[in-house]
Amino acid sequence: MKSLFPLPSFLDGIASVIDLGGVYEDFEIADDPARADYEAILSDWQAVGDDIRAASASIRLE
Asked: Does the predicted model carry a pTM greater than 0.85?
């Protein structure tokens, strides 16, 4: 799944501090805002599920 947000490196972080005009980062513009919302919410819930799985696995190990 494509991310609507860039995944910055350390050097990207430094460059973004210097980039006061906001021209360095290039964000993807969604053609369909409803689809972008759907994908963002789906991604959020997938992250929640991953966290729950990781937590339950660590509980089983204890």
From this structure: no
User: Between the CA of residue 52 and those of 1, 26, 39, 42, 46, what are the distances in Å?
Assistant: 21, 32, 20, 15, 10
Sequence-ordered list of residues with C-beta below 8 angstroms from that of 24, at least 6 positions apart, any chain: 15, 16
What is the C-alpha separation between 36 and 49, in angstroms, rounded? 20
Taking only the tens place, the pLDDT of each residue in 15-54 is 777 877 766 666 677 789 899 899 889 999 999 999 999 9
Q: What is the DSSP string of 1-56?
A: ---SS----HHHHHHHHH-TTS-S--PPPPS-HHHHHHHHHHHHHHHHHHHHHHHH
Cα 12 from Cα 1, distance rounded (Å)? 22
